[in-house]
Amino acid sequence: MPIKKLKDYLDKNDIEYITIRHSLAFNAQQIAATTHIPGKELAKTVMIKIDGKMAMAVLPASYLVKLDVLKELIGAKKVELANEMEFKHLFPDCEIGAMPPFGNLYDMEVFVAQSLAEDEEIAFNAGTHVELIRMAYADFERLVQPVVLAFSTARVI
């Protein structure tokens, strides 16, 4: 049960949060619509490879990662999207594509989009496609200690 590990971690650190159960949804925009959470406050975790090393890019559901901008900001030679086959083994306790944005629990670096860091609260997948955690962004930042950079852009519909 993936959410148990995450809840135990949050409880151990005295973090206030709520759990939100929702109908099955596989992408961040569907989850935002189903749970009535603004896409800007729903954090999605995008797995990336930075010079061959796995990392997390965390950004609002309604935004896109600008890989070229991230590459330039961190001075990497190569930044690319990772495919599921490359990272699914790293999250044995999570459903594929539902990893929480806690790279610190999986020994990987986390990059957060500046646009997400501006929110008071964020919500994110809790390891399944039917559960979210909602908590204060400040608490998330304190626990994860991500690198906050401007590497995302709003999705144009």
The helix fraction, in percent, is: 25-40%
Total beta-strand segments: 10
Biggest pleated-sheet summary: 8 strands, mixed
β-sheet strand percentage:
25-35%
Compute the separation of the termini in Å: 36 Å
Number of helices: 6
Multimeric organization: single chain
Return the structural class. alpha/beta
Q: pLDDT average, as an integer?
A: 91
How large, in whole angstroms, is the Cα Rg?
14 Å
Order of helices and strands: HEHEEEHEHEHEEHEE
Low-confidence stretches: none
Shape type: globular
Characterization of this structure:
This protein has 6 helices and 10 strands, in the order H-E-H-E-E-E-H-E-H-E-H-E-E-H-E-E. The longest helix is centred in the first third of the chain and has 11 residues, at 2-12. Strands 1, 2, 3, 5, 6, 7, 8 and 9 form an 8-stranded mixed β-sheet that branches. Strands 4-10 form a two-stranded antiparallel sheet. By secondary structure, the protein is an alpha/beta fold. The mean pLDDT is 91. It has helices spanning 2-12, 28-35, 67-74, 84-87, 114-117, 137-144; strands spanning 17-21, 42-50, 53-60, 63-65, 79-81, 110-113, 121-125, 131-136, 147-149, 152-154. The protein is globular and about 40 Å long. The protein starts with a helix and ends with a strand.
